[in-house]
């Protein structure tokens, strides 16, 4: 149950189990000095009342007390290890498991989740669960076990006093359980408000330049301020609800002490219990509630961490894309068979069928939003198709593990992803065992050398977050170098030359020309001039194939393709100065 509730690993669940047992033992062991003290008091009273010999040997008490101290020390040592150290280890494991799981999640998952939401699960939720595991879980369950043992023992001494002592415990527990039910919605509201602030702050920082130059910046700032104030409001409501219940539970528990005094006094007056039994219950009553009172004040945190744990579970339980890892592909035709696909409800790809053949260049063209990038991403299994299938070398890619599939694919997309690392390592991602000579050769072919040589540490220059110290063209050339190094049999190019000046564009096209020999190339290019020599051009309109053929054939068809080509020619003749003449 704990494993599921807190999304623990098998080892984590075992550690928590032992932490609970050890905490119970620790609670019991700290009760033993009380028992020893009572024995001493009983003996002293006996001597005082003359019922025992006058000589009092303290040796037994000293040696037992020493032994008890040692027992308490050792139990505490193990308890500490099992609770705190294990909690930190477990949260590190959870983060690694989450990172691994996130790596395997289909892109559709990221479409429905904000990045700051996932970061918050990775960092904040795991930290919250870690804190609860370290400070509350063992205390709560260990406290329940030790109290049950003490209860049984005390019932053995006197069931009426035992009842007086413990009658309030289940009542206060019930109050706490009720508080969980009633605080749950304010807890979730509070969590959502916090997420909305982190999303807003992330957006604010990312779009700082736009915000600063916008006349709406005051509105934007006020919106953010509003979100932050909402966190204060929801936190206060949550704390208020929890505060009322926790103090209710705490005071109910405290009534138990009063009940022991009243019941004990009554029974002593009627001669039904001895003074020692009365004292025993008083001592125990003063101590037995300790774990619970500490715990009650942590209950708000405890329930809060259950929300965190359920958010972790949600990521961990999300189905990952399945497929065989050990697949060997020998031929690389990409075949789309009646493929339809929707990001949400409405299809953006409708019944598309074509084959991009090995050794040929297949171009996807069409107006903006017609589904070119989507088709290209479906071929790399970033998403799974809703209808139909995509085959590579005759094999349905739905049966190949995404990582295995991607080892056959080089991708150069518009949105280049670079790491805050050296130029060298950014290219090396294409092939993990590449030599320096191979990396430099790829950089040379992708025309990266001239700008790399101008950098202070050449290949060893760190390029900042997502390569922010480089120009758009330089970033794109780096990603082409990466693809060249990988030398995969399938190449997906999305506007690969979008950020290059005409001189570099020609050079890159030559490099790509060398790279694509005998490979399957699926290219998306908005500038139709660059696809004139392609072996096959697929013209898309609103997610459907409108025309297919080579450039000449499509021009002769006098359809959408020709229309797009003419539009582009007209826009190429457009000049900034022309605006003034209008
Ligand atoms: N992650 C997404 N979630 C929801 N809808 C999306 C997503 N990505 C794209 N779309 C929608 O799918 C449709 C096709 O988008 P796609 O990016 O494939 O078009 P495109 O032809 O490549 O466009 P462009 O030429 O402007 O890059 C568009 O209507 C777009 O709004």
UniProtKB/TrEMBL annotation:
Q: Name one GO molecular function term.
A: ATP binding
Q: Which residues form the ABC transmembrane type-1 domain?
A: 17-302
Q: Where are the transmembrane segments?
A: 16-39, 59-76, 140-157, 163-182, 237-261, 267-289
Q: Which CDD domains match?
A: ABC_6TM_exporters (cd07346)
InterPro entries attached to this UniProt entry: AAA+_ATPase, ABC1_TM_dom, ABC1_TM_sf, ABC_transporter-like_ATP-bd, ABC_transporter-like_CS, P-loop_NTPase, Type_1_exporter
**Chain ranges of the ABC transporter domain:** 334-567
Taxonomically, the superkingdom here is Bacteria
Short name of one Pfam family: ABC_tran
What Gene Ontology terms describe where this protein resides (cellular component)?
Answer: plasma membrane
Q: Does the keyword Nucleotide-binding apply?
A: yes
Q: How does it sit in the membrane?
A: Multi-pass membrane protein
**Compartments it resides in:** Cell membrane
Is NAD given among the entry's keywords?
A: no
Per UniProt, the keywords (alphabetical) are: ATP-binding, Membrane, Nucleotide-binding, Transmembrane, Transmembrane helix, Transport
UniProt-listed SUPFAM superfamilies: ABC transporter transmembrane region (SSF90123), P-loop containing nucleoside triphosphate hydrolases (SSF52540)
Which Gene3D superfamilies does the UniProt record give? Answer: ABC transporter type 1, transmembrane domain (1.20.1560.10), P-loop containing nucleotide triphosphate hydrolases (3.40.50.300)
> What's the protein here called?
ATP-binding cassette, subfamily B
| Species name | Desulfitobacterium chlororespirans DSM 11544
């Amino acid at each position: 149950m704990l494993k599921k509730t807190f999304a623990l690993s098998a080892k984590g669940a075992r550690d928590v189990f032992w932490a609970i047992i050890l905490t119970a033992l620790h609670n019991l062991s700290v009760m033993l000095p009380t028992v020893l003290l009572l024995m001493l008091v009983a003996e002293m009273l006996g001597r005082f009342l003359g019922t025992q010999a006058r000589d009092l040997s303290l040796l037994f008490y000293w040696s037992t007390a020493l032994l008890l101290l040692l027992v308490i020390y050792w139990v505490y040592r193990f308890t500490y290890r099992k609770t705190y150290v294990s909690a930190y280890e477990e949260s590190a494991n959870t983060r690694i498991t989450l990172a691994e799981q996130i790596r395997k999640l289909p892109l559709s998952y990221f479409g429905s989740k904000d990045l700051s939401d996932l970061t918050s699960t990775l960092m904040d939720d795991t930290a919250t669960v870690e804190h609860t595991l370290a400070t509350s879980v063992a205390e709560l369950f260990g406290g329940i076990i030790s109290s049950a043992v003490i209860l049984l023992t005390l019932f053995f001494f006197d069931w009426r006093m035992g009842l007086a002592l413990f009658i309030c415990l289940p009542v206060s527990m019930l109050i706490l359980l009720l508080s969980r039910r009633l605080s749950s919605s304010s807890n979730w509201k509070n969590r959502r408000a916090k997420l909305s602030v982190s999303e807003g702050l992330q957006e604010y920082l990312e779009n700082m330049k736009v915000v600063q130059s916008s006349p709406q910046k005051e509105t934007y700032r006020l919106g953010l301020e509003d979100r932050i104030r909402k966190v204060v409001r929801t936190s206060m409501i949550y704390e208020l609800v929890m505060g009322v219940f926790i103090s209710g539970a705490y005071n109910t528990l405290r009534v138990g002490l009063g009940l022991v005094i009243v019941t004990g006094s009554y029974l002593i007056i009627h001669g039904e219990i001895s003074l020692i039994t009365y004292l025993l219950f008083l001592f125990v009553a003063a101590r037995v509630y300790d774990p619970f009172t500490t715990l009650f004040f942590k209950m708000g945190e405890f329930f809060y961490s259950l929300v965190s744990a359920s958010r972790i579970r949600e990521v961990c339980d999300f189905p990952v894309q399945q497929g065989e890892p050990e697949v060997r592909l020998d031929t690389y035709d990409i075949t789309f068979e009646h493929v339809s696909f929707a990001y949400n409800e409405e299809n953006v790809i409708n019944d598309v069928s074509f084959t991009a053949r090995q050794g040929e260049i297949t171009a996807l063209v069409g107006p903006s939003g017609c589904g070119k990038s989507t088709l290209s991403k479906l071929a790399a299994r970033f998403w799974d198709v809703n209808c139909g299938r995509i085959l590579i070398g005759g094999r349905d890619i739905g049966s190949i593990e995404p990582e295995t599939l991607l080892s056959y694919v080089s991708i150069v997309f518009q949105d280049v992803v670079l790491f805050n690392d050296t130029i060298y390592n950014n290219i090396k991602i294409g092939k993990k065992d590449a030599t320096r000579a191979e990396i430099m050769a790829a950089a040379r072919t992708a025309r990266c050398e001239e700008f790399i040589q101008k950098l202070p540490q050449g290949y060893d220059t760190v390029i900042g977050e997502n390569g922010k110290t480089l120009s758009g063209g330089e970033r794109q050339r780096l990603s082409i170098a990466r693809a060249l190094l990988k030398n995969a049999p399938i190449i997906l190019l999305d506007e690969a030359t979008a950020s290059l000046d005409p001189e570099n564009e020609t050079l890159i096209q030559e490099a790509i020309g060398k790279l694509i020999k005998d490979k399957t190339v699926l290219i998306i290019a908005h500038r139709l001039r660059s696809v004139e020599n392609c072996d096959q051009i697929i013209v898309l309109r609103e997610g459907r194939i409108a025309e297919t053929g080579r450039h000449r054939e499509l021009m002769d068809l006098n359809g959408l393709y020709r229309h797009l080509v003419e539009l582009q020619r007209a826009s190429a003749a457009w000049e900034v100065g022309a605006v003034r003449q209008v």
